[in-house]
Every structure is written in C-alpha cells, then in structure tokens.
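EI: anyone free to look at a 354-residue chain?
SC: sure, send it
EI:
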Amino acid sequence: MKKNKDKLKIIRKKIDATDVQITKLLNKRAYFAKQTSQFKSQKVYDPKREKEVIKKISKNNTGPLNKKDLENIYTEILSICRTIQKPKTISYLGPTGSHTQEAADKKFGTLSEKIPSKTIKDVFLSVEQKEADFGIVPLENSIEGPVGETLDEFLISPVKIVGEFSRKIKHSLLSKQKDINKIKTIYSHPQALAQSKRWIANNVPDAALKESPSTSEAAKLASKNSMSASLSPEVCSKIYNLNILHDSVNDDKNNTTIFIVISRDHEEVAILKNTKVSIVFTLPDKPGSLFECLKPLKAHNLNLTKIQSRPSRKIQWDYNFFVDILVGSKVEETKRGLEKIKKIASYFKILGAY
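SC: here you go
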C-alpha cells in the first residue's frame, strides 16, 4: 500500500512540474499573440490562420488526447489570446441555451462576451450597428436544407461571411410535465420541428406544433405552461428548470447544421488561396441566362460546391441564386470568373471569402 502511495506521489510531482511548464508556455503564447495585434489592424479574428493552427496541432498529436480534445482546448486558448489582443463581442441567436450559443462557445470560446439576439435579423442588425464585432447564425441543415431567413438577410445587409463551421445537433423534448401523454403543445424553431417530425408523429401525434424564433426561446415558452413541451438543447432543462422527457428526438442522428460567422468589414473582400467564395446573383429575364452565368465557372475550371435558389420576393417566379466556389490555387481565375458573372447578372454580390 505504501509503495502505491509513493508512486502516486512521484506522478503527482511530475504533473505539478508539467503544470508549471504549461503555464509558462501559455503565457509565452499570449505574449506573442499580443505582439501580433499591432500588425493586424482591426482583424483580430483570422479563421484561416486559426484553422491552420489547429490542423498543425492535430497533425503533431501523439495522444492520449484525441483530435476533438485538442480542438476544444485550443478553441479556448485562441479565444483567450484574441481577448488579450482586443476583446470581441459576439451576437448569437438566443436566448441563453440555444444551439447557436453552443456553436458560438465552440468557435469563440466560453470566455468571450456574447449577446443573445431574439431573431436572425437581430443578429445581423447587432453586427451592422456595431453592437457586436461578430455574429453567429445557422446557414444550412443536413436534413432541412438552407435557413431562408439567413439567406434573405444577405440581400439587404452589408455584413460579410468571415468563417463557417458545422456542428451535430441534438434536440431533446423538455417540459414541466413528467408524463409525455399529457403534452398538448410543442414549441420549437421551424427547422427543429421539421428535423423531428417523424418522432413527433410516432410519440406525440396529437400535440399542436407552434413555431418559435429559436430552440431556447421554445424552452422559455414551455416553462410557462405545464401542458407544453419544447424541442431544445438539453442544457435548457437546467436553465429553465424543465424535465427531460426524451433526450434525443432527431429523426436523423447525424443531424448537422452549418453555422457562419458574420462581420461588418468595409474593406473589399480579399479572394485568397484555399478559401471559399460565396456569392448571390439574380438572372436577367431571358432564356439561357443561368447557363450563361455558370459558364465562366466551367470555362475557368472552378469547383462549384453549392448552388441554391430562393424566391426574390420582388417579382413572381424571380429567383436569387446562392453559389459557393472553392478557390484552391486558382485565385486569378476565380476573380475573372466572378467579373464575368457580374457583367451578365442583373444583381450580383460577394457574400464573403473565408
């Protein structure tokens, strides 16, 4: 027994010594990060650079920490270093406990200052009006497709996309009620309701479905009525004092949402190597116009990874087309291709290069 205690004591001394080394190295990293701020102008957040940092760390990892563990640790380290350089405020689709807040914590770390916004439009407005440096909004879901409200805001907002990332999404059924058979109403965001429609039909077929601006707002509404429930992140059960009636109601367990980081940047969008460019354009009213707009991409052998149409709401059967292009090493070809589309389209806008 004494032998084991002696071994444990030795190991703990090594841990203490390692902690001292880690502390010194973290402070050293923070010192260098602070030095870089004088060369960055206002751009403290550099998603491309941060992606490279995490990629290098993962490549050199020998365990026992796995890739996800390291990403979580470095997300916090990078967040703290950004705060040391210049504190940043992030607006997200709230209230507290939403999937978008979880995404914001993942991207910017839990220590960054965050502002909950009631709607996606409010997130855009907070960034436009400089109440927040960045905004986090959902862009697309693997089951239900694009988030229309987000796409529509880009047509009227000057903000730009400066980053994107994806997260697996899990909805839980939460309620003051303990008996699922007594649930009369289920609140949630339209996307969450759509992502769980089969489960709802099989388990609570008679419940009325009511839309809310966010999954966390749904939990807030459910907390006010014992006969109602919400589809929300599990963390909302603690925030709003709700019971977890079922911890996963997704129809698809691989349910994933792409979130984007938006920022108001008055500089011209820089198209760089190994970035993605997002654009939106409207077609002129003549036959073959979509083909003509896409032809420059083919001519320059550019990789179009996504094209989505959405009604413009200005003229009946008039559509906006949202397109993503991978730049790779073809920077000049991308620029020339975009210039050609701009000349052909009746409306054209670069949403971001990131």
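EI: The CA atoms of residues 51 and 71 lie 10 Å apart.
SC: 👍
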